[in-house]
Amino acid sequence: MTAVIRMPQVLSLFAIAATIASSQTLSGPALRVQIVPEGQESREVLSIKVGGDWQPILSAASSVYVRDAVGMHACALDHAISTGEGLTLTGECGTGSFEQRIRLTTESDVIDVSTRFELKRGATIRSVEDRYDFLPPRHTNVDEHTGPLDFVWSQDIKSQADDLIPTNSFKSPAVMMQQGRLFAALMPHLNERHVDARALDLDVTSDAHPWMTYGAIPSQPHDHSYFRRPADAQITSIDDTIVYSYSIVLSDQQPKLGYRRVTRRLWEQLGHPTLLASTDEQQNVLRPELRSFDSWRHEAWQRYADQIYLSFPCGKKQCGTLRSNRNYRGHWDQPEPDAWFNPWFQTLRTAYGWYLDSKATNDSQMMAKAESILNLALSSPQDRGTFSTIYLVDRHQWMPGDGWASYADSYHTFAMSWTAYWMLRWADDLVPNRKAEILAFVKSYGEFLLAHQQPSGVIPSWFYTTTLQPRPEFRDFNAETAPSALLLVELGNSTGDSRYTVAAERAMRFILQEVLPRQRWFDFETYLSCAHKGFGFYDSWTAQYPQNNLAEIQAVAAMLALYKAVHKPEYLQKGTEMLDYLLLTQQVWNNPLFTPKLLGGFTTQNTDQEWSDARQCYVATLLADYYEATGRFEYLERAIAAARSTFAVAPWENWAHTGYADEPGALTGFHWGTGSAMTSVEIMAPAFGDAVIDTDARQGAGFDECAITGVEVRGTAIAFHISSSAADRRFLVRFRGIQPSRQYSVSWNGGKAQSISGSDLIRNGLQVGPVQPDSANLRHPAVTEAYSHPHDTEKADTWQSSQE
Question: Which band of pLDDT confidence, cut at 50, 70 and 90, is reported for residue 12?
Answer without folding.
Answer: very low
